[in-house]
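In response to a reviewer's request, we include the raw inputs and outputs for one of the modeled complexes. The three entities were modeled together in a single run.
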Amino acid sequence: MTAIRNILSRWLPAYAFLYIVFLYLPVVFLPIFSVNTSASPKFPLAGLTLQWYRDLPNTPALIDATRNSLMVGIAAALLSTILGICAARAITRYRFPGRRAINGLIMAPLVLPEIILAVSMLLVMLQLGLALSLVTVVFGHVLVCIPYSLSVLTSGFEGFDRSLEEASADLGETAFGTFRRVTLPMVAPAIISSLLVCFTISLDEFIIAFFLTGTEPTLPIYIWGQLRFASKLPGVLALGTLLLVGSFLLLTIAELLRRRAARRTQNTGGVLA
Amino acid sequence: MPEKPMPERSQSDRTMIEISHVTRSYGAFKALDDASLTIREGEFFSLLGPSGCGKTTLLRMIAGFDNPTTGTIAVGGQSMAGIPANRRPTNMVFQSYAIFPHLNVEQNVAYGLRRLKLGASEEKRRVDEALAQVSLTGLGKRGAHELSGGQRQRVALARALVMRPKVLLLDEPLSALDKKLREQMQVELRRLQQAVGITFILVTHDQYEALAMSDRIAVMFGGRIAQVASPKEIYQRPVNRQVADFLGGMNFVKAEIVEENGSSLVVDTLGFGRVKTEKPKAFVRNGGGATLGIRPERLRVLWEDAKSKFEVAGRVVERHYFGEITHLIVEIPGLEKPLSVTETNDFGADDIPVGAPIRLAYDPDALVALAD
Amino acid sequence: MTAAAEGSQPLGLRGRQRTSLLQSEAAQGFALISPTFLYALVLLVMPILVVVAHSFWTQNYLTIDRTFTLANYRIAVTEPIYLDLLMRSLWISLLVSFFTVVLAYPIAFYISFHGGRHKGLWLFLITIPFWTSYLLRVMSWKVILGYNGVLNSGLMGLGIIKEPSTALLYNTSAVVITLTHAWAAFAILPIFVSLEKIDRSLIEAATDLGDGPLRRFLRITLPLSVPGIVSAILIVMIPTVGDFVTPKLVGGKDGVMIANAIQALFGKGANWPLGAALSVTTMLVVTAMAASTVLIIRSAARLAR
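The model returned the following structure tokens for the whole complex.
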């Protein structure tokens, strides 16, 4: 019995520490090798340089891919958040037959293999005669973003006390006025958080973009193309580091906003929880 | 709002709310069943009952958050049918208080005034006045999260009062507060109501709260209104066993009817002998029998050789000490259930030994006939 | 004063309005969710139905022959190469879900029971690596495990091995390691949520009734966290089968999975119906595997009581 207590008190924190190391191991090597003078990633480093970062802006293909990714990301974030708001509001506020089944269907892309989603959407889009382009990529990304958007927004809407809206009506406010003065200010952080999360997912998504894009590559597709050439590796690492920092900043903001929203509505629950 | 002089009772005989034959069904279930009620202007009126009795449903229908399946509700002589909550002359203090968490105290109180476009100075004056009424002066800039339970309750009250409604609706406003604060707020709410003269309708499941604050009480069970009367009458003359039981302890005594006429009953009981009592309105003869009730505090211990015209004799079987009072369980020969007696401890009721013989005095008026 | 009301309506009309209002509560909810629902229908349900339809058709060079046939399924389940790939994918996916859940459980447990005030920070810390580009993380593992990679050069630098080991990269274990890393957050979060939901007084009650730490873990904590374990497995096992980036980058010849074949058939191979049949078969088989795993875990939890 004391032995088990020892394991809990001593080994569990150690294990937690090792696990965090395991989680961050691949993440920390990106920035480390991105400043290495040698193109082959091994220790010890050959020397320190910012050369690879300086080269990035001079690569037209990269600039194009970045622009494509930004456009896709913004469009996907807006669309999936709007669809997420509708669904989250309906699920948290109304009771109607088939509510659970519809919720399950909307969340399903989370547990389906992405390749199946990708090829099935590919078939339909070709059947419908849609030319593959960034637009089709946006459609695909929206499908996989909605479950995340719905989770974030549901957790933001759930603690929302219905009597707040009733109180507003009771004090003479119209339905629209109630939405503008009570509902919107309270759920705004969750909405912004959803936008940021969806943007990040779209920015990093590869498999669906790979199948659904036409001639214009997104960033992950550009990176995938570069991976074939060993000499291009440092450039990719430099790009990856920048993406990492960008994602980290966006998600930190998203998390802070989500917490603020949760504090307001007295509700806890993570991005995925 | 009509200007009125400020008498001790701010009540008038004019009708403020007329509820006639209101039923609210959810499928086969009736949350409210043919309720009719008249509430007067300036009255402090309580809807009292256990949870699920329909009291909150009725309150929400007056506020406009729910609508009757059949029947009508009129406020100030106007039918409320088809009028949404935001256009009704009523305001509500919610059970959860529903303080807007993104606004501070002042902004919360000014929330409904904003639509009236009063102008900044008039708005501020009204907000300050309302905050003063609930003793929150100086706390206007506090955030919603920095408030204690009692303060939240006061903000909710100020936010509703500042609208100068014809009727203020209170949905279990004190249930979230601890005992001491609750008792203090009962007194304050009553004072506030008399000062502003607005009709208050309070929903509560706490009989002491209803008794302490109200001009009149409607006791509700299972979607039906069982009795509407003043606190004193509800307590002393409950119409049936259910109401009697809900309003505190009551001894029930089986009786045989000897004589029945328009307004009174003469009955024979084993312990109390022949008694003449007032006949309750809803009284239905149950064969030759009836039930009499007497409150535990209306039975008094007779000390030494004291005599009373009306007394019963028995034996103490249990004694429970409650500080200022003692609760005695007394067996009376001939009664199938022992009587509960509460006696103040001034004369040593807490020293009566268990098993001792005892005599109890009673006032025959305290014996009420109850419909089942 | 709040705006006073005016006008009234006859009683009968109110009654009818009430019923229509009740229905409209459901109707409003349905109307509100319908854009999202329609989107999922058009881009999820319809596409999957189209894939199922394709799996019964035949590729005829550039056109599709729409006569019903089971030939694709015959190939999918009899052709050794596809059968091998499918079996290997299932095995890898089983291994990945096992390791992910087993490694994740203690962390989730630690955060939930010993996280104190910093629970939120811990969770955030764990989700960050997951949000970085998947492609880059896989590539980073390639750098770590490679012939000239970090692990080999590190081990050689420490004098543990003399020449670089080839056992680290381009095999099944490389795929399993990479995927176990990739899915970590997906396993920790549902398990954490189910642990958080456990009423702590239940554990105190078990202690009060004489259970030691191990017993109360096995009899209370573990069985009550089964829902979290189940969703972790579902969320890891099914999508893992469909991965083709990891096998392609770090799997080598041994690590190729069924998704690589599906990708090839929809890409260069240009045999959509066969690709569709493989997709459907994979989905059915992995769903069956996930369902049976869940059943086994649930009945095991029932026995533990």
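As requested, we also summarize the result in words. Chain A touches chain C through 89 residues (CB under 8 Å). The longest helix of chain A spans residues 60-93.
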